[in-house]
Each structure stands twice: as C-alpha cells, then as structure tokens.
Amino acid sequence: MQPLENDATVLMRGHQITRRWGGLVALNQVSIDLKAGSLHAVIGTNGAGKSTLINILSGEFPPSEGRVELLGQDVTQWPQDQRARAGLGRSYQRNNIYPPFSVYENCRLAAQANDQKPWLWWRPAESAVQSRAKAEEVMARCGLTEWQDWPAGLLSHGQKRQLEIAMCLATEPQVLLLDEPLAGMGAEETERMLTLLTQLKKDHAILLVEHDMDAVFRIADRVTVMVNGQVIASDVPEAIRQNPAVQTAYLGEGEHAVNAS
Fold first, then answer.
1. Is the pLDDT score of 261 beyond 80?
2. Whose CA is closest to 97, among 155, 160, 150?
3. Which of 84, 143, 168, 226 could form a disulfide with 89 if both were Cys (CB 3.0 to 4.6 A apart)?
C-alpha cells in the first residue's frame, strides 16, 4: 500500500475502508480526512454505512480492508482504549453517562481515566487536583456548571448530550467522533449544541454523523454523502447542495435513491 500524502492538518484519516459482514458489503472503499479546525459531516439514511464508518474509526471493530490513521500513526489494529489515550474522543447515539452520579463526578471520572496513577491507589480520588480542575473546565465549556451537583439522570435530554461531550473533552482528545448528537432535541437544545460544536471545532477535528440536514448545512465545513456503503460525493456544503448525484439520491430518483429524513 502506498503511503498517504502528508498533510499536517489531517488529524485522522480513513483510507479505502471496506467492511464485509459475510456476503454483505457494509462499506466499500470509503476514504475520509478529518482536519484540524474543521467539522466534517457524514450524511445518509439508515443502512448507508455511517455508523459502520464511525465504529471502524473509533476501533470498535477493524476494517476488512483499508487503513485508519490517527495523528500520523497507523492505528488500524489498535483497540478503542488505545485510540482514546492517543487523542480520540467519541459520543454515541445513546447517552453513555452514569445517571446516579453527579454531573461533576461524571466529568471527573472521565478526566481521571485519562490520568491514571494506579501506584497511588491509597489516595482519595478527590485529591486528584488535575482531574478536578479538568472536570470544572469541561463543565464550564459545555455550559453545565450550574448543574454540576445534579444527578446526571435528572438532566434534560439535551443536557445529557452536552454532558457526554464534556466527558469526551475531559480525556483531552484532538479528534471528536460525534454520532447523532442532535437526535431527539428541541429547537432550543439544538441551538445550544450547534453553538457548542462551533466553538469546539476551533480546537479539534470533528466528524459529525447527523440526520438534521438544516443543522448540517449550517455548521459543516465539508459534507460526505453515503449511499449503500459508498461515498457518492464529498465537498463543501454549497457544492453538495448543487451536486446532481446528491440531488437525485435525496429526491428519491435513480438506483441510489435514499430518504433524507
């Protein structure tokens, strides 16, 4: 396999990724670059391959073919925890928080996982000054300081999504993989999340898998459109809007027709 072109702004790269499940080809030679200071959205309906792509990039399972790079390293065979320690953060379609614990404790535990010191097993967790400071920082960044003492399970749906992103940030990632963070949100919660994502992309490379087309075209710097496990277009938002193949797919015409909802 030929080495990829070096680009210091590319923090994560999927190169010619294919994934087979028996006779089913879930992904077919999909390539994607995630650049520093940029939000790259991936759109397509259920079954298009979006979740499979994000699962492979995060290390949940390996590709059948192709390569995944993170910060210039080949991480194709790395497990999820190793990729997380190397600078990768991920959110899921379903909330991945600890409902009985406070907002603060959720964030502190995430920060502590990134700063493990097993030789200090006898020291109370609250004495970990660095983890406490990081928890306070990410709560403030995600607009959760006011609710830091609340049990996480009592937060609104939108606040829980904010908390999950705060927990990701507590591990100090450079790349964020966000799987439908706007799902189930009302208008006000969506606006708060879009404001947060706009702020986060200044310091991260972000992959956003999302069904809300209005939000995608407002916030994305680049959009990749997938149909049946393949990329049919990848470009800046305005070019995607004008792309005949995308228009055909989303209007429900032709062999690649999909539903944009």
1. no
2. 160
3. 168
What is the rounded CA–CA span in Å between residue 66 and residue 148? Answer: 43
Residue 250 near residue 260, CB atoms below 8 Å? yes
Q: Which helix (H) or strand (E) holds 88?
A: strand 88-91
Residue 256 has pLDDT above 70, yes or no: no
Alpha helix ranges (H) inside the chain? 50-58, 80-86, 103-113, 129-141, 157-170, 187-200, 213-219, 237-242, 244-251
Whether 31 and 10 have beta carbons less than 8 Å apart is answered as: no
Pairwise CA distance, residues 197 & 191, whole Å = 10
Mean pLDDT of the chain: 88
The widest CA-to-CA distance across the chain, in whole angstroms, is: 65
Q: Any idea what DSSP says for residue 172?
A: -
Residue 5: exposed, middle, or buried by beta-carbon count in 10 A (0-12, 13-18, 19+)? exposed
Q: What is the DSSP string of 25-87?
A: EEEEEEEEEEETTEEEEEE--TTSSHHHHHHHHHTSS--SEEEEEETTEE-TT--HHHHHHHT
CA-CA-CA-CA torsion for 46, 176, 190, 138, nearest 10 degrees? 150
The two structure tokens encoding residue 2: 């030929």
Domains of the chain, earliest start first: 1-87+174-261 (3.40.50.300), 96-172 (no CATH)
Reported as a pLDDT band with limits 50, 70 and 90, residue 93 is: confident
Count other Cβ atoms within 10 Å, centred on residue 191.
13
Encoded tokens for 54:
């994000």
CB 217 within 8 A of CB 49: no
Q: Which two tokens stand for residue 239?
A: 């070019």
